[in-house]
# Entry
Amino acid sequence: MIRTYPFWENILSVKVAVIIIGLLTAVIASMIAKVQSSVKTQIAYSSVTQMGFIFIEVALGLHWLALLHFVGNAFLRTYQLLVSPSVLSYEIHDMVFNYKAPQQADHKSSLQKMKNALYLLSVKEWNMDRFQYRFLWNPFKIIGRNVTSFQRPVVLFLLGGIFLIGIYHINNPIGILSGYDGWLPFIYALVGMLFVLQSFAHRGSANTAWLFIVAGQCFITLAIVANGGLPVKELLFYFSGIVPGAITGLLCLNAVYKKDRDISLNIYHGYNYELPKTGFVFLLSCLCMLGFPITATFLGIDLLFTHIHADQPVLIIFITISFIFIEIALLRIYSRIFLGMHKKNYHPIAFRSS
# Structure
């Protein structure tokens, strides 16, 4: 949030939205934390509560306070995790030897009814998972499932031709596309986003989903370049992690495929049981692809956004959605292939719920 602050510091509506989201996050997470029966989840939701306050601090421009708050919260939660066994032992002994029965409340009063309602909502975590799946993930999954034409060789060949024509047009602006320069970045960004959403919803081969992500990133880069140019140095920053990550990840998936000839994304395979080193290398490849700060891609993503103009909200939306779902799609591939219980007969069967 601090790194993107210069993009929205003068937009009042965005600042108000961030403050409201931070306030709601703090209030709801604090209520959920109070009803947790597990120490870990209680500490986790307490951290989420502080994140809500940090959002407010960032929106108000108090960046040094936000950073101090961030570090202080990290130290506090680490300390709480370390001492939690001792605290639990003390609380259990205290409950056994100093137990006091709770007073009976008047369940007919409006205040008590409100308390009961908030308690139930907090136990159900305010139905956030259901809300998130229904209104955030499900619509994008529907879009991804409906873009099945991207799997047809003819369509892929056509899109590959469009990509090559786009590269040629950037180097030779005078041509058949010269009258559509203003629309080309939006078209390329839309195609890139559809590739990413297709990977997010794909349940077939992991190789195909991986290549969809690579194709999506290529079209996103082409959209930025067509929008006004991208210096070679910044382009190298961006691809410094993506290219080696894409190649290494594909090699890892092929190595897993040779094991059992099955890397579908419809179940959890649990290959970390047999191929832990391959799983670790593949995880590093995913982190390189999504711009984790272990390569210069982390900086390259920021540099890409600096080439989007303030009067291009649609382009910002397309590329932002793409980057969000690139991260989710990559970690989804990793979790489906390497996590979960192993699918072999001498291990429990890896149902989706596992």
User: Anything to note?
Assistant: The CA atoms of residues 33 and 44 lie 8 Å apart.
